[in-house]
Specification:
The structure is a homodimer of 519-residue chains. Chain A is of the alpha/beta class and 519 residues long. Helix content of chain A is 29%, strand content 22%. Chain A is elongated. Chain A starts with 6 loop residues before the first strand and ends in a 5-residue tail after the last helix. Chains A and B meet through helix 8, helix 9, strand 15, helix 11 and helix 14 of A and helix 8, helix 9, strand 15, helix 11 and helix 14 of B.
Chain lengths: 519, 519
């Protein structure tokens, strides 16, 4: 496996190739602080360079939401971010927010939904070990959260997009982002689309995304609420007085300062996909892929929490993209290394990606025909070139290293079912079933890297308190966003990161803002 | 999923059903201390009830080995164990120790092996993210470790057992325990058996196992070396002086005492498979299975380490058995929920178990015929009853819920290959290939629980030092065995737990014993 750091433009985003072979790469390590995360006793703080009520590390969607609610609770709030400006990974995202229970957008699109259906779906889709306590408040509070986002200036176009794709085109505000309308979930819970897409008039992939637009509204709202912000300011260590967190040491342009936080510190500093050593330690299967995130996703927020006794949760979990066009995927057969299908291709492509990465070690092929290729190209605007093309499945099997006859059997089973409008093997919906006809194309996806980010992190209560090893809150410490393990407990749906980050960011900020101040 | 605690006799061992649904069960939680693991500052210790140089928590194979070497280094040593006697999970095990590089037993059996071949194999078999630094010293030091075990009184019968089974019968001292002689490893590294089985004359499964015999020798050696031991004494919290660990608080018959450890504390207190809350938090896929271990595997050793700033590693990892007779497995086709094969059935059954659990969510079937059933029953001494029997694969497919034609295709592909002495699909060795003939039996293994234990834990150096979040040793703190993440980094081979526990237990004990004493 390649160990050199690679940069690549993937879908217009600047991505990094992370942790080839799971070993830290010196060039990457340079960006990261190796300084200790061990907390500083308050007695060793000579001088507080700044004082505030609530200090928030990170100005992505979780930090910004926390800052708004902490200020609304009457607290003085300081947000610091290691980057030169706001946004973090949130501003690079597609701007999908997982909301439901009957939002005005859902209603305008004729979609029926309830908090119970939303809860039932997310409990199934985000397990094993779904965060039931968080899911309960998240689903119950989703309508109120929708209203809050609207009050922050966020708009959603009430128009449903139903084609398979990672993101919807401008002008659509709602889409399926978790496989709600596909096997197995569609058979278990009444399906509803819940991916609410932040509206942006001049969306230009690679420049400004809908996630950027979300952040613009949140940061503007925070500014109106009187939140102070410092950029190029990295949080390095927490300051503790006994068991209570009372501030942090920050580094700004090479200088170290202590910031006192009378009511609490909120860690909202992203995940750890940019830290190859942490990936190897906790989530080695995510290594060797493209980072979806920023250099700030170095896990320091998580380690600072651990250093004061916080528990972590599901550190092996991660979201993965799938390395080809969803419009083509839905119309194809996705095969494992032995030439068998293993998942319904019409579910959420992130779920396909997780299955391919975690259950097939990335060893997959896509088999399709000319009709599938043409239809997908027409929708996506680009054609995927197959690795091999042939009329003869036996010949393709040989290229793929698949046992003789297996590929012909796979296609025969699929075609026979498709004729009847059924997929007895993987339960793809009838809409996508059509017997494949020669010539066939096979795309070799073995070892094709996908985009990844981590979803494991600090264990927090639904109120945003960071919990210790025995489950008790650590006084003065709060966290939200990908620094924590949240709604995407293990399984993932697009929109649960911005959804979880904003929702529990608000709760962490509110809880911190209302905490009793230290003297 | 069942949430009630179940007890069952599995292979003669007392096993517990752990963590149904990944939720803690009150009846289990009773056995566990919910007391804080937060360290006690030495300044708060009023009275040291006991003083020693090296305090060791746990008297399983890691703790006992550590005690012997700490004493050999000239230290005064006290071992405490929460149980009423020695042994821990080690004494319940099959007594296999993974050793190689050309041991006298290997040589007497005509087996060629080198430290390099052993390293190459383990690096492949224990990844992703194999513990390369530990593997290097483990393979290099394996011959010396063999000699040390012999000096402790352990004997091995130089006779090779080659039938597929979890354990060898009395009188055999060597077997394959990692799939060394099967695909894919046999194609990549010259295979050698390395599972060295501790000899025991009157081995009676369910009463005394070869693991018990190993422990008997180790404990006797420790006693001769002057090691002190206290049972019914549970280590609850570490005592720290600044960053250094200087002792521990122990609980014995309800009374709390502080024990000073002038040179260091060694945590050798087992894994966390008996702690449902920790399983849910870190390894939810292991929940709902049978615990291989003791009530002492409650993860407290790991949490005590974390509470003083230790890093953890691969907390999602675990070893799993496979829920049926290996002799039958090798002669059968193991199928996924869709009726396809997915692994060569003749590899190490623990590897099959991991693949079935982690990659197939336990949804598997075993398909075999009368010849396979009879041969396996003759070897194992018991017959496995199939769930369904039929001459008609289409009928069986219907029972299994498999798409029409798929099962017939699976068997046709296998039989055609077997006729030629090949397995183009999964690469089972020629020895096990034989076309299957009707009537066929299918054993439904969907949701059949397997035996599990955890292999994630504290991050330690190859010297046995516990490492902090930034990779620096925590002064005065050492660990070994399943409290740590070791040789079974992710993948597993039988014998790597006793091997890793004894080998790195020795190193931890030696390092602790040679440490400078605190005043």
């Amino acid at each position: 496996m390649a160990t050199a750091e690679k940069e690549a433009e993937v879908d217009g985003e600047r991505c990094y190739f992370v942790g080839g072979g799971g070993r830290p790469h010196p060039a990457r390590a340079r960006h990261m602080s190796a300084a200790s995360t061990a907390p500083v006793p308050a007695s060793q703080v000579g001088h507080w360079a700044a004082e505030t009520d609530v200090l928030i590390a990170g100005n992505g969607c979780a930090g910004a939401s926390a800052s708004i609610e902490a200020a609304a609770a009457g607290a003085r709030v300081l947000v610091v971010d290691a980057a030169g400006g706001w946004g973090g990974a949130s501003a690079m995202s597609g701007g999908e927010i997982y909301l439901g229970g009957g939002t005005p957008v859902q209603k305008a699109c004729g979609v029926e939904d309830t908090p119970d259906a939303m809860y039932a779906f997310l409990k199934l889709a985000t397990g094993p070990d779904p965060a039931e306590d968080k899911l309960a408040v998240y689903c119950e509070g989703s309508l109120e959260h929708f209203d809050w986002l609207v009050r922050c200036g966020v708009t959603f176009v009430p128009k449903l997009w139903t084609e398979p794709s990672w993101e919807a085109p401008t002008g659509y505000g709602l889409m399926y982002t978790g496989g709600e309308n596909a096997h197995p979930f569609a058979d278990l819970v009444p399906p509803a689309p819940r991916g609410h897409i932040v509206h942006m008039e001049d969306k230009r992939p690679g420049e400004r995304s809908a996630g950027w637009m979300l952040m613009k509204h949140l940061v503007a709202t925070a500014e109106r609420a009187g939140v102070e912000v410092r950029y190029n300011t990295r949080t390095e260590r927490l300051v503790v007085d006994g068991e209570r967190v009372v501030g942090a040491e920050v580094v700004s342009f090479g200088e170290r300062h202590f910031v006192r936080a009378r009511r609490g510190v909120v860690l909202a500093a992203g995940g750890f996909a940019a830290n190859p050593a942490m990936l190897a330690q906790h989530a080695p299967r995510l290594a060797g892929n493209f980072l979806v995130g920023t250099d700030g996703d170095d896990g320091r927020g998580i380690r600072m929490g651990q250093a004061v006794g916080a528990a972590v949760r599901h550190m092996d979990a991660g979201q993965t993209s799938f390395p080809t066009d969803p419009a083509l995927l839905y119309r194809s057969l996705l095969l494992d290394a032995r030439g068998h299908r293993f998942v319904n291709e019409d579910t959420y492509p992130g779920r396909v990606g997780q299955t391919a990465l975690f259950k097939q070690d990335r060893k997959t092929f896509l088999l399709y025909d000319e009709t599938a290729s043409e239809e997908a190209a027409r929708l996506s605007g680009y054609a995927v070139q197959p690795t091999w093309v042939s009329d003869d499945l036996g010949e393709l099997a040989k290229e793929m290293g698949v046992a003789p006859g297996v590929l012909a059997g796979t296609v025969a089973t699929y075609n026979a079912g498709a004729e009847r409008g059924e997929d007895p093997e993987c339960h793809k919906a009838a809409r996508w079933l059509r017997p494949l006809a020669p010539p066939y194309g096979v795309l070799d996806l073995r070892d094709a890297p996908c985009g990844v980010f981590t979803t494991g992190g600090l264990h927090t209560s639904p109120r945003g308190e960071v919990l210790g090893l025995e489950g008790d809150p650590i006084p003065g410490l709060f966290a939200a966003g990908r620094t924590t393990s949240g709604i995407p407990s293990w399984g993932y749906c697009s929109g649960t990161s911005l959804g979880d980050g904003t929702f529990f960011g608000r709760r962490a900020g509110r809880r911190a803002g209302r905490s009793a101040a230290t003297a």
